[in-house]
Amino acid sequence: MKKIILIFSIIALGLAACEKQLDQSPISQMSVGGFFRNDADFDQALSSVYNSLHNYPWREFYLSDVRSDNIYGVGEMGVRDWEPINNFAKTIAVNTYMSEAWNSDYTGIMRANTVLDNLNNGKISSDAVKNKIEAQDRFLRAFYYFDLVKIFGK
Q1: What is the DSSP letter of 65?
Q2: Structural contact between residues 101 and 54, judged by C-beta atoms closer than 8 angstroms
Q3: Predicted local confidence at residue 25, as pLDDT
Q4: What is the pTM for the complete model shown?
Q5: From CA 66, how far away is CA 21, in angstroms rounded?
Q6: Band of pLDDT at residue 99, cut at 50, 70 and 90
């Protein structure tokens, strides 16, 4: 009987002790709620909006210049990812360049909206800095929307 009571008490203590350890916030990542605290944080967030332009030159090359008469984009080593784009194929929805364009632009829009949502929380030191960040952010968001319309249409 003492063994059963001892086992149940150990199980009860073990279950009660683990609850506090399960409710921890991650120490390796910042959440949006605790991130925007000063000007440097807003600059870092604006850099992440710019980061969606990382593959833009290649995307622009494959989705526009390859389709024009400026470049003869047929590969010699078999079917390349850009050949359906070059040939105006109707089934390019799963093409890697198309999905990268879609994901990059919408990631940039999401990041720009996150910066704009947190811009008026009173954590920026001056109106000049706030206006600079807001102008860059709004321009980049408009640019991403323009790129989506240019590639995918209305």
Answers
A1: I
A2: no
A3: 66
A4: 0.70
A5: 55
A6: confident
